[in-house]
Each structure stands twice: as C-alpha cells, then as structure tokens.
UniProtKB/TrEMBL annotation:
<dbReference type="Pfam" id="PF00787">
    <property type="entry name" value="PX"/>
</dbReference>
<dbReference type="InterPro" id="IPR001683">
    <property type="entry name" value="PX_dom"/>
</dbReference>
<feature type="domain" description="PX">
    <location>
        <begin position="1"/>
        <end position="124"/>
    </location>
</feature>
<dbReference type="GO" id="GO:0035091">
    <property type="term" value="F:phosphatidylinositol binding"/>
</dbReference>
<dbReference type="InterPro" id="IPR036871">
    <property type="entry name" value="PX_dom_sf"/>
</dbReference>
<protein>
    <recommendedName>
        <fullName>PX domain-containing protein</fullName>
    </recommendedName>
</protein>
Length: 497
C-alpha cells in the first residue's frame, strides 16, 4: 500500500492573554495500515524545510514551492492557500526516499516504526515478487512485468538485505530462456542512476558475484544475437556499468600492488595481440567481406588496431555523367536514382539506407549529406528513429564519407566508385559487423580478468561468516597443493582461450 497524506483540519489556537492567535494544521498519514495523526504550526514546517535544505543538496530541486510568509496570516484565503501548498509539498516528500526518515521523524514517529518502514518500502515489494514467483512458476513473465510497473513507479528505500535478495532472484531467472531478456532489462534499470535511486547498492552486490554467476546473464550473447532489440543496448551499457565498478574495486585492491597491476595489463595486452595476430586482421588489401548492397556487391575492407576497427567499402555505380553529377550535387534531382539504388530512399538532403550481411538486416539510419568539394560528399550519421539505434549512435562516434572517382568512358557515360568509411570501437563493432570479430567479447574478457583479480585478492582478506571461512580454508588448501604454478597456469590457460 502506497503511503497517503492529507491535512484533515485547520485549527486556530489562542495561546493566552496578550499573545497572538496562530494556526495549527492537523496532518493525517496512512502507511501500511498504520494511521499517524499530528498537529504542526506553519513555523514548524518552515524550520523543518530549512533543516533538510542544510543537509540535502538536491532537496531544493526535488520539492515544490514552499508557501511564503504573509501578513495577516489568519485570513481564510491565506489559510486555504497554505493548506493546499503544504499538502502538495509534503506529498512530494513521500517520493524522496532519502528524506523520508527525517520527514517521519518530524511527524513524531518512533525509531522502531521507522525501521519497519524502511523494510516495508522497497524490501516488501521484493518479498512480494518472491512469493508471486513461487505461486505462479509458469507465469514468470507476467509476474516480472507487474514487479517492474510497481517497483519503478517511484523512488524507494532498499536495504542491503533487500538488494542481495533481489539480485539472487534475477540471477535465477536469467537461467531461463523465456525470462532472461526481462531479467537483463530489470538489472539494467536497477544499475542505472536515471531509473533507480539505490543503483550504487545494486552495483556493489554485483561486484561480489563470481565469474560463473556473471556468465549466467549471457550479456555477450545479448549483444551478439539481439542486434535490433533494446535488450542489446541495455546489455552493452550494463557491461559498461559493471566494468566501471570493477575497475574502481581493482584500483582499491591494486593500490600498493604493482605486480598484480602489471599482471592485469599483461592479460589485456594478450587479448589485443591475439586479435592483431589473426590472419583476418593482418592485411586490409587482400581481405574482402561481401554484403548485399542494392543490385551490386559492396566490397567491405577492414583493418583492426588496438583501439578501433576501421571498415570501408566500395560500390561501383554506372550511369550518365550529367545524371550522376546532378544526383550528388543537386538534391532536387536525386530522384532520378531512386530505381537504381533500390535500398536507398532519397528525400531532400537525407539518405535512408539499409545494408545486409549474412542474411541479417543490420542497421537502418538517416544520413545528412554535406557537399565537400567537387568530388566528395560527407555522410554525417545521425540517430535513427528507434530508441536502440539512437543509443548506439550516441555511444559510438560513427562517420562516413562517399568519395567519387570519375573515369570517363565516353561523352555520355562515366564510372563512379563510391567509398564508404566507418570507424567503430572494438567492443561495439560486432553489433554492426558481427562476423568480423571472434566469438569472445573484448569487454567481457576484461571484466573476467578484473573478476579473477578480485577473486585472488579475496584469498588474502578477512571474511566474516563461518560458511565463508570454511570456503576460505578449502581454497587455501587447494592453493597450497598447487603451489606456485597457480598464477602461471592461469595465465597460460587464458592465453590459449
């Protein structure tokens, strides 16, 4: 049950002879079937407002306008105006989890009641999710949809226990093909600052997951296989969020450990060198990748460097010289080429295009043509209409250029070669050119390396619970039996993979 608040009565009090009358507002609050009634003066509200502004930098932006002080405050119009404004101001406070304990304390609630509320807010919704999944094991998708609508409806308090329990539930759901997409979607929202107030708490618990548990999310599979689905974007951004968190934790671990830091850098260098040494990345002149482009074959060349994957292609076009020049240089006459370029639609100075590869339709986008000298046109890639493409183009600086090389056959005809250039980051290029990169995801491997590093450090840290102490003893025994070969074999295994 969502908390509800109302100013039920306004009373005028007389403090005694030779003193001014004042107004008292009676506030009624309903929280989880509990009813709290208290009376506060305007000056009490004003002092509380100043107090929360002193310790919360965001409170001023989150809360609506507070009713100002006025002369002749007992006038009915002033009283009704203040009642409406105060009621709106307090109702907004109910949607600010970080301010709720202070607000409830201002209304006179006990500390034990505040503790029960902190559990019943976010944690209670998680408990209801767990019970609903147990009652409806065959209807998990509808249960998750209901949870998403309820949980993210407003900002909620979440305890450490609640965050841990929620992650356990979602990780179990990620094991099922029918619910893994929804599980990734919810995890992404929980880790995103724009959608979840307690995003840092969730990410802290993700840092505690082992490599095997992280692999259950199959984030790399989402990026590879669901190219035109929002879940692909969320999986990629979730990997970025987790990598930042792991990197922060790694810096803490490696603060005074140069040997371990060097080891991590060596692992990543092995990834880059292994890719660079692949035959497909050795040369860009004799390697071709064919993809359907209208009626012609578009030849795609690519070259891999440590930082980016560079892709460019050539499309031969033939036609009358005047017509070709008109199409490129005069936007109004580009319609002449509509039939020739079947997959392209020309609209003014925009080109909508689609290219295909391996029977999969990849990306549809809008490009702005900018005339760049006599023989070239710059294509500036802009976001497509759908949200997935929009996010991809915002995250990656993609650019293109068509260069025209004229060769005059006779007075009426000429041959034009259009060259298309694209530069993509290595961990996202596979989304567009899926078969140019090996199966392992670069970013995923970096995450695994960081996780391994954290796991090794865990062997030398103090663990609280008895169960974890037993695990620690077992791990140390295994480590002693293997001896100094552990690090060497681990690095060799990683290199072979």
């Amino acid at each position: 049950m969502e908390p509800s608040l109302e100013i039920t009565r306004v009373l005028v009090r007389n403090p005694g002879p030779l003193r001014f009358n004042y107004t008292v507002y009676e506030v009624t609050l309903l929280v989880d079937s509990s009813k709290i009634v208290c009376q506060r003066r305007y000056k009490d509200f004003n002092l509380f407002r100043n107090r929360i502004f002193s310790f919360s930098k965001t409170a001023f932006e989150q809360l609506p306008e507070f009713p100002p002080k006025q002369l002749r405050a007992l006038r009915p119009s002033v009283v009704q105006f203040r009642k409406a404004q105060l009621q709106s101001w307090m109702r907004k406070l109910l949607n600010c989890p970080e301010l709720l304990p202070h607000f409830y304390g201002f209304l006179g609630m006990s500390e034990s009641f505040l503790q029960s509320l902190s559990y019943s807010d976010g944690d209670k919704v998680i408990l209801e999710l767990k019970e609903a999944l147990e009652r409806n094991p065959r209807n998990k998708i509808n249960v998750l949809d209901d949870f998403t609508n309820i949980y993210f409806r407003r900002r909620r308090l979440l305890t450490d226990i609640g965050a841990y329990e929620l992650i356990k539930i979602l990780m179990r759901l990620a094991e099922y093909p029918l619910t893994i997409n929804l599980a990734v979607d919810i995890i992404y929202k929980l880790c995103c600052p724009d959608t979840h107030f307690n995003h840092e708490l969730i990410k802290q618990h993700f840092c505690k997951l082992s490599v095997e548990e992280l692999q259950k999310l199959k984030l790399d599979c989402h990026i590879i296989k669901t190219k035109l689905h929002d879940c692909s974007v969320q999986a990629h951004e979730l990997l970025n969020l987790l990598s930042i968190k792991y990197y922060d934790k790694m810096k803490e671990i490696l603060n005074n450990n140069d040997e371990a830091f060097s080891k991590f850098n060596n692992w990543n260098n092995q990834i880059i060198e292994r890719r660079a040494s692949r035959e497909r990345f050795k040369s860009c002149d004799n390697v071709e990748y064919r993809c359907l482009f209208n009626e012609n074959q578009m030849t795609i060349y690519y070259k891999y460097s440590g930082k980016s994957l560079y892709i460019w292609g050539e499309v031969p076009l033939k036609g009358k010289k005047d017509s070709i020049q008109d199409w490129f240089l005069v936007p109004e006459k580009r319609k002449i080429w509509d039939l020739r370029l079947k997959e392209m639609r020309v609209d003014g100075n925009k080109i909508d295009f689609i290219y295909k590869s391996n029977r999969i339709k990849y990306v549809s986008s809008c490009s702005l043509c900018i005339i760049d000298g006599e023989n070239s046109i710059i294509l500036e890639f802009s976001p497509a209409e759908d949200e997935m493409s929009k996010k991809m183009y915002e995250n990656n600086k993609i650019f293109g250029k068509i260069a025209m090389n004229f060769r005059l056959w006779n007075e009426q005809e000429t041959d034009i070669k259009c060259t298309w250039n694209i530069s993509l980051c290595p961990n996202t290029s596979r989304i567009y050119m899926g078969d140019l990169i090996e199966e392992e995801c670069y970013l995923k491997e970096s995450l695994m390396n960081l996780r391994r590093l954290c796991d090794e450090d865990t062997l030398n840290t103090y663990i609280d619970t008895e169960e974890e102490n037993q695990i620690l003893i077992s791990l140390r025994r295994k480590q002693n039996s293997i001896g100094s070969r552990v690090r060497t074999e681990s690095a060799n295994t990683f290199s072979r993979n």
